[in-house]
Amino acid sequence: MKLIFVFILILFSNLSNAKSFHCNFEEVYQDGTLQFGQVLFHEGLLRYQYNDKQLFTIIFNKDYYAIRNNKPEIVNKLEKNNLLNELTNVLTNYPNIKKNYKTNDMQISIESSYNSNFLKRISIMSPDTNLSIYLINCDNKKLSKKYFQPFSIVDISF
Fold first, then answer.
1. Residues 26, 133 contacting (CB under 8 angstroms)
2. From residue 78, how far is each of 59, 62, 116, 136 by CA, in Å?
3. How would you write the pLDDT of the chain (158 residues) with one tens digit per residue?
4. Element (H, E) at 11
């Protein structure tokens, strides 16, 4: 769960100059495990949704919420933690984001796409896990705010 927060903060901080976009993502773990999903961003609102029905969707709409994909009526408000606070401090240099960050026992590497303003890959290395998140097929798309309501989750339909 901590890794999702890391991704959300990095993505939110780096892409806040885009008013609205949609990307597919692929998370690749050190053991070869893959997870797929979609990320949506619209005017400061964020949705990070795994395709797997056994996983969850995270929505940022003033606060962070986790919604079970197989039971959307189960919504949990998420609290920030020390990891999030440290990452927020690292990212205060936006838009001049560096390629590498090291904070306590975590290292974050960021790769940008050569042909767009979007991030291409985020690598997170820590004692807990090693993970790469690839952003794929990113598209500037005007999105409705209905996709960012945690208590009345709407299926992504495009």
1. yes
2. 10, 11, 32, 27
3. 555 554 554 555 444 455 678 889 999 999 999 999 998 888 878 888 999 999 999 888 888 889 999 999 999 998 864 443 444 344 334 446 678 888 778 888 878 777 665 678 878 888 877 888 898 988 877 899 999 999 998 998 76
4. helix 2-14
CB 115 within 8 A of CB 122: no
- Would you list the DSSP string of 126-156? -SS-EEEEEEEEEEE----GGGG-TTS----
Domain residue ranges of the chain, discontinuous segments joined by +: 2-148
| 122's tokens | 């985020």
Q: Which fold has domain 2-148?
A: outer membrane lipoprotein receptor (LolB), chain A (2.50.20)
